[in-house]
Design a protein that fits this description.
Rossmann fold, 2 domains, three-stranded antiparallel beta sheet
């Protein structure tokens, strides 16, 4: 007999075998000013990373330097989001494998984890798989963690997290940080603070 973990979503319990968290604005406090980055890049709309790879090589290198400086500023000013450390500890105590899936570079992701002493089972950066909103990064995480994609829970604060999760077939949780999203919300669960997630997790005997 072993304990099975479940999450209550839309009035029913669903098995959860692993949880993937976004980084910026989810595990770490909202800090990065993407409007300012777009202004520096001269980009008025669209996906920054998709725009980046379509640039001529010389322009791409210049833009990448701005993006890396932007991410480094985020590393230097990083702090835990409200309730994030306690949530990670509690989920870890349940025995659930944990991942971080971010659009950030591997270098900045690793630096944040060192600064905050974040320990999870898997780190997925933009170099590892096509980044959110592409579902490939979630499918990659599920494969590496050895869990069915439908039992992976994606927790994030932005539309890209929800789009990627739903497209992959994962369960989705939107963290609003107390702000009403300016875009249509399509998520299995919406919470204001990360610690609220714990109230929806359950454990049950499985024979």
């Amino acid at each position: 007999m072993q304990l099975q973990r479940y999450i209550r979503l839309n009035g029913r319990s669903r098995p959860v075998h692993a949880i993937a968290f976004d980084l910026d604005g989810t595990l770490t406090r909202p800090y990065l000013n993407f409007a300012q980055l777009r202004q520096q890049l001269g980009l008025t709309g669209g996906d920054i990373l998709k725009w980046l790879v379509e640039l001529p090589l010389a322009e791409q290198e210049k833009a990448l330097q701005l993006i890396e400086a932007f991410e480094q500023d985020g590393v230097e000013n990083v702090a835990w989001n409200d309730g994030a450390r306690e949530t990670l500890q509690a989920v870890r105590a349940l025995g659930l494998p944990l991942a971080i899936i971010t659009r950030n570079s591997r270098a900045s992701l690793a630096a944040v984890c060192r600064r905050l002493d974040i320990r999870v089972d898997l780190l997925v950066a933009r170099e590892d798989a096509p980044p959110k909103p592409d579902p490939a990064c979630l499918l990659y995480a599920a494969e590496r963690l050895g869990v069915p994609i439908e039992s992976l829970l994606m927790v994030g604060d932005f539309r890209h997290d929800m789009v990627a999760g739903r497209a992959a077939g994962a369960m989705t949780v939107l963290l609003t940080n107390g702000r009403t999203p300016a875009w249509p919300v399509e998520a299995d669960l919406v919470i204001e603070r990360l610690v609220e997630l714990l109230a929806y997790l359950e454990m049950s005997d499985e024979k």
